[in-house]
Design goal:
9 strands; alpha/beta; Rossmann fold; Pantoate--beta-alanine Ligase, Chain: A,domain 2; 10 helices; six-stranded parallel sheet
Length: about 280
């Protein structure tokens, strides 16, 4: 059995562990997670291992990015399995703070991002979300002082928000995006996929298939508005409640009037039953 990574749960313990890791000019990669690790997360750990000599994985279910009606209390927590998976991937350290460590009494400072955080995508439906993400990731960056941080492209708007924040605040962290890891039928891996019933799971890959079809049509020169409207109808006819299906500039996330205004990223968010899925692909 692989050796379990070290675990730090207090800031003094984290600093001691990081000081030990930084001997001999070691570089550190941080992989921020909320636990319930799947193969998508492990792909981030592998990328971190390739790019740095030491890998730190944070596991913290961040309450400030959940709205009152969302699933903070029921969000899957699988500590033992997570640790076994991280041991197999040779992670060096797990940072597992409690809420009282991240948000102690009288905590009063938050990061309120703009730019890609106000693109009228996820922020339209979860207006609390990116403030919570930016604040917790900003804290993780300053606590762990990584050379690089690795995020998945599945949460594409989040990736752009974090990248912009790190640059704007001179945090000295290079943010790296890793392509989405998918199931064999194309469904993007997500900790929330466990909420899907068998019937919903059978329908869920339609999101990816619809995006792939739309991207192909756009590359072939089809009209942007027509392609996006057709895709939205396909998703809704499959039984999803569609929040958005958008073609945006891949870097700024600004709306684009035509396919000549790229590079283009297609982004979708839709709910099936009580489970909300997001995904994206490049054109």
């Amino acid at each position: 059995m692989s050796r379990l990574p070290a675990v730090a749960r207090t800031l003094p313990a984290l600093r001691r562990a990081l000081d030990a890791l930084r001997t001999r000019r070691a570089t550190i990669a941080l992989v921020p997670t909320m636990g319930a690790l799947h193969d998508g997360h492990l792909a981030l750990v592998r990328q971190a291992r390739r790019r740095a000599s030491k890998v730190v994985v944070s596991i913290f279910v961040n309450p400030t990015q959940f709205a009152p009606h969302e699933d903070f209390g029921s969000y899957p927590r699988t500590w033992k399995a997570d640790m076994e998976k991280l041991a197999a991937e040779r992670a060096d350290l797990v940072w597992n703070p409690g809420v009282d460590i991240m948000y102690p009494p009288n905590f009063a400072t938050r990061i309120l991002p703009e730019g890609p955080a106000t693109a009228n995508l996820e922020d339209r439906f979860r207006p609390h979300f990116f403030g919570g993400v930016a604040t917790v990731v900003g804290k993780l960056f300053t606590q762990c002082r990584p050379d690089i941080a690795v995020f998945g492209q599945k949460d594409y708007q989040q990736l752009k928000v974090v990248t912009r924040m790190a640059a704007d605040l001179d945090l000295g962290v290079k943010v790296i995006g890793v392509p989405t890891v998918r199931e064999r039928d194309g469904l993007a891996m997500s900790s929330r996929n466990v909420y899907l019933s068998s019937d919903q799971r059978a329908v869920a890959p339609i999101l990816h298939r619809t995006m792939k079809d739309a991207a192909k049509r756009l590359r072939n020169g089809d009209d942007l508005k027509t392609v996006m409207a057709d895709g939205a109808r396909t998703i809704e006819h499959a039984g999803f409640a569609l929040d958005y299906f958008e073609a945006r500039h891949a870097e700024t996330l600004a709306p684009i009037p035509s396919i000549t205004d790229g590079p283009i990223r297609l982004l979708v968010a839709a709910k099936i039953g009580t489970t909300r899925l997001i995904d994206n692909i490049g054109v």
